Structures are given as C-alpha cells and as structure tokens.
Amino acid sequence: AIEAYVPGKAQAGGVAKVYKLSANENPLGPSPKAREAFHAADALELYPDGSSTRLRDAIAAAYGLDPARLVCGTGSDELITLIAAAYAGPGDEVIYSQYGFLVYRIATLAAGATPVVVPERNLTADVDALLAAVNEKTRIVFLANPNNPTGTYLPFDEVRRLQRGLPPHVLLVLDAAYAEYVRRNDYESGIELVATTRNVAMLRTFSKIHGLAALRVGWLYGPAEVVDAVNRIRGAFNVNAAAIAAATAAIGDTAHVEAAVAHNDTWLAWLTAELTALGLTVTPSVGNFVLVHFPDVDGKRAPDADAFLSARGLILRRMDAYGLPGALRLTVGTEEANRLLVAVLAEFLGKSSA
Ligand code: PLP
C-alpha cells in the first residue's frame, strides 16, 4: 500500500525514507537470477576470466553478434575513457554535443585531447552542426542516443547521415546506454551501423535496464581494430567475477527486462503528464528519466525545488554542470516514489495534485 503524502508533514532534521532519483538507476532492481548469480560467485582467490568470455558469448547470442567484436568494461564509463585514450591525444579533437553526457568531456581531457562542444537544437543533437565541426584533427565523435540528461534521441536516418558525413579517420561512438527503453520505430541502437560500416562503435551498459549499476559492467561492439585497440590498453582483469556472473544471468532474463520496460512506459508517461499539468515544462524523453524545467514557474526555481524535494527525501539531479541551471533531471522511480514526487512538487508550487 502506498501511504498518501501529507503536505507539510516533512520535518527538518531527517526523513523516514530516501528516494534516489538522481542517477537513472532501475527502480525494479536487477533480475532475481542476476542477484542469485552474484551471491553464488565463489573461488574468490582466483582472478576472473580476463576476456569475460561467458558474458561476451551471452551478449553475442542475445543480439546475434560475433563475440570477437565485443569488449566488456567496468561500466561503459571505462570504455568511453579507453576509446578516448586509444584514439585521441594532445593536438587531437574530440566532438560531442552541448548537452552530451559529461563523461565525454572528462575522457577527452584525460586523454590530453581537445573537446569540441557543438551546439544543439531543441535540446537535441544537431547532425549538421556536428559535421560542420569535423576537421583533420578530429578523432572521435561521441553521441549518446538517447542522450542523458536531455532524454532526446536522433532517429536512425539522422545517425546514418552523421556516419556517412564523417571522413574515415573519425570514429563515431554511439552510446546507447538507454536503448532498451526507447519505444520509437525510427530508433536503432547502433548495432546495424557497426555491422555495416568500418568507423562506428556502440556502447551498452548493464547499469540501466538490467539494474546492475553497482557491479559496473558495460560492453562495446565495434570494428575488429577498435576491439583490438581497447583490449590492448584495458586492465587485464577489468570486469570482476561476480559482475560477469550476474550480468550473464541478467541477459538471459528477458521477462525481467520486459517488466522494466513496461514499468518505464507507464510511469514515464504518467510523470510527463502530471508534471506538465503542474505547469512545468518537460522535455519529451525516450529514456528512464526526464528533464524538468522551472522557468521561474510562479517565481519558483529549480534550486529551490531541489532543496524542497531533498528535505523530503527525494533526491534529484541539478543540471548546473550541463549549463541548464533552470532544470532538474529525475529518474522514473517506483510507483511510490513517482506519486510522492508529484505530490511534493505540487506542494512546492502551491498547487493541489489531482
Ligand atoms: N552513457 C550514458 C549516456 C549514461 O547516461 C551513463 C550513465 O548514466 C553511462 C554511459 C555510464 O554507464 P555505466 O554505468 O555503464 O558506466
């Protein structure tokens, strides 16, 4: 049963329960099979399989891919960093779009390369602008599709136009961390482009739809040369044994994945409608999160909303680091968290929620 939210009940000095809606994690948690495999992991004195063979085979079987063209990483974060390190250095340029995932900047700077930030249109990556930024120094274009934190995406024909417009010395990295959530016929995660071209790599993660963010597992599907380059510089035993076991079990539990997608479908639509009804502007999202804008709604601002929410146990993500100080990003949560969030925001805005 869900307890009704009582306005004004939240007190300073502590909350009964904390709802973390700040990192786009899965409110349903992992598959019970993944949890079981994690707990069953043993032989802890032994190094894990440095090639993550079981896991690569399971991914390959699930998606119809060649396991030789897969690399697993400690989260897709590690793979982003490794790609930047392998392909870009001082004097090279790495392109990503204005509201692109923050790790692209960090990885570019860590590699000693120069970030080139390309303006977006309507909080969506702009293919023409991305292509216009390419020159002989460009080494990588990172594109999160769908993008975090905006929740927007590029349809397949736009991604293909981007790929076709890139010279062969540029690697296009399609980061499809939220691919499973997308319910659009014109979306493609990148598998098809990797399979049919030579300069595209795709990244995926077990942190989102599979609910295994704590274990840090991601994977790359790419050309043999990219796989080889990443394998040469990654840690020899980068993915740990419990993570390999849990992720392998997770990929086999398609019913759990379907349940997570169905939950997201329901509550993403509900949150979008409820927040809009409160007078807030919601960027239409195809992921498991939404960007909510407080363009001075009745004099109420995003940082004040954030403080009000966190005092009541609701943790959202401020967007100042992305240059969007008027927005908050929130992850689709459990039914309880979603309903509480809307009720608390209604109180903050001085409106009654239906
Ligand atoms: N790529 C995007 C677009 C993300 O939003 C995230 C996490 O939020 C990641 C990659 C990193 O995921 P992982 O947990 O696999 O490192």
From TrEMBL:
<dbReference type="GO" id="GO:0004400">
    <property type="term" value="F:histidinol-phosphate transaminase activity"/>
</dbReference>
<dbReference type="InterPro" id="IPR005861">
    <property type="entry name" value="HisP_aminotrans"/>
</dbReference>
<dbReference type="InterPro" id="IPR015424">
    <property type="entry name" value="PyrdxlP-dep_Trfase"/>
</dbReference>
<dbReference type="InterPro" id="IPR050106">
    <property type="entry name" value="HistidinolP_aminotransfase"/>
</dbReference>
<dbReference type="InterPro" id="IPR015421">
    <property type="entry name" value="PyrdxlP-dep_Trfase_major"/>
</dbReference>
<comment type="pathway">
    <text>Amino-acid biosynthesis; L-histidine biosynthesis; L-histidine from 5-phospho-alpha-D-ribose 1-diphosphate: step 7/9.</text>
</comment>
<keyword id="KW-0663">Pyridoxal phosphate</keyword>
<dbReference type="Pfam" id="PF00155">
    <property type="entry name" value="Aminotran_1_2"/>
</dbReference>
<protein>
    <recommendedName>
        <fullName>Histidinol-phosphate aminotransferase</fullName>
        <ecNumber>2.6.1.9</ecNumber>
    </recommendedName>
</protein>
<feature type="domain" description="Aminotransferase class I/classII large">
    <location>
        <begin position="17"/>
        <end position="343"/>
    </location>
</feature>
<dbReference type="InterPro" id="IPR015422">
    <property type="entry name" value="PyrdxlP-dep_Trfase_small"/>
</dbReference>
<keyword id="KW-0808">Transferase</keyword>
<feature type="modified residue" description="N6-(pyridoxal phosphate)lysine">
    <location>
        <position position="208"/>
    </location>
</feature>
<comment type="similarity">
    <text>Belongs to the class-II pyridoxal-phosphate-dependent aminotransferase family. Histidinol-phosphate aminotransferase subfamily.</text>
</comment>
<comment type="subunit">
    <text>Homodimer.</text>
</comment>
<keyword id="KW-0032">Aminotransferase</keyword>
<dbReference type="InterPro" id="IPR004839">
    <property type="entry name" value="Aminotransferase_I/II_large"/>
</dbReference>
<keyword id="KW-0368">Histidine biosynthesis</keyword>
<keyword id="KW-0028">Amino-acid biosynthesis</keyword>
